[in-house]
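Fill in residues.
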């Protein structure tokens, strides 16, 4: 999208207005507007959206949002953003890009084989029970002080609806919500995760880009952080294999879940992308929608990428995408680049 069109977009204009005012949720001069931030996941590829959301802070946009929505790895990225821990991005670079997190089955990156082996691709229990507690611990006190609430989305097995979790009571409560949101069938777990009285899978099953949930929640403006470069789409064969195997697995839990999953994958995903593209180009709304993602031709990371140099390049492309969206001052851009330069050397 042309940079001049992006800079005049209603989402950018509202963000800059609130930045200038220094307002907080519940104290806005424009209470008729509800500005949401959506953070996409994508397994290890979500390092891109981690970089995009972290770039918002030195640009002065930390508190301009009324609510943040996250799904899967995107929800974890958002949690580290709310707790003001930019170092959380190192999870991708120095902690999970190895065989401790990604299983042998995960290296195969072929869903039918995972299904036959009955082995998930990753060890998410280790991530949420150990890494985010002991290795790069999520700062619960800082998270609880954030003026912008986080809503963690997950798909309910019982009623085949998206549930948005917030008002967390402890770090463990938050981590359990994040794990529920990241429980992608087969790839992360064969069983749903039990949380707050129900069983949950990744919300991407029913609301691929969180747009339906955010719009239903009253958002008039939405900034959507995305991981794939512009123009990247999975092949029809890849989508068909993933849909068929996932649907077969979900059928043992709830047929309504299967029906709504297939509807979301065949219809809603396309409709969401069309709605996003139209609002970006024509400034149509409300809701006004603006996506940030790496430009066409940028590196497109694999779901379970382990090469640190490639992951770091993915982070750089995410940061640059965010910079391109807002035309920052030289000082702001230098602060962003200085932070990402510190990531060049691994921390062990």
């Amino acid at each position: 999208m042309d940079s001049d069109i992006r800079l005049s977009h209603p989402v950018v204009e509202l963000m800059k207005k609130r930045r200038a005012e220094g307002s907080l949720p519940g104290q806005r001069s424009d209470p008729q507007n509800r500005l949401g931030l959506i953070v996409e996941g994508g397994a290890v590829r979500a390092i891109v959206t981690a970089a995009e959301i972290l770039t918002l802070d030195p640009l002065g946009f930390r508190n301009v949002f009324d609510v943040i929505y996250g799904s899967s790895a995107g929800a974890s990225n958002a949690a580290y953003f709310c707790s003001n821990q930019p170092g959380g991005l190192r999870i991708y670079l120095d902690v999970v890009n190895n065989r401790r997190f990604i299983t042998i089955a995960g290296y195969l990156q072929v869903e039918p084989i995972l299904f036959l082996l009955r082995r998930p691709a990753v060890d998410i229990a280790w991530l949420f029970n150990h890494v985010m507690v002991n290795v790069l611990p999520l700062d619960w006190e800082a998270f609880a002080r954030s003026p912008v609430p986080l809503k963690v989305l997950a798909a309910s097995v019982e009623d085949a609806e998206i549930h948005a979790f917030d008002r967390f009571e402890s770090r463990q409560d938050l981590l359990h919500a994040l794990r529920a949101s990241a429980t992608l069938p087969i790839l992360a777990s064969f069983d749903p995760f039990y949380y707050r009285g129900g069983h949950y899978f990744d919300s991407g099953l029913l609301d691929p880009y969180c747009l339906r949930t955010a719009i239903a929640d009253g958002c008039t403006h939405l900034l959507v952080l995305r991981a794939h470069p512009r123009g990247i789409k999975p092949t029809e064969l890849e989508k068909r294999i993933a849909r068929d195997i996932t649907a077969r697995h979900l059928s043992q839990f709830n047929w309504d879940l299967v029906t709504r999953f297939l509807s979301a994958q065949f219809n809603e995903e396309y409709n969401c992308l069309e709605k996003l593209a139209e609002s970006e180009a024509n400034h149509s709304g409300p809701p006004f929608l603006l996506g940030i993602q790496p430009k066409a031709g940028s590196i497109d990371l694999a779901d379970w990428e382990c090469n640190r140099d490639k992951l770091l390049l993915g982070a750089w492309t995410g940061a640059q995408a965010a910079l391109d969206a807002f035309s920052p001052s030289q000082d702001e851009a230098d602060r962003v680049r200085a932070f990402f330069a510190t990531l060049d050397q691994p921390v062990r």
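The radius of gyration is 19 Å.
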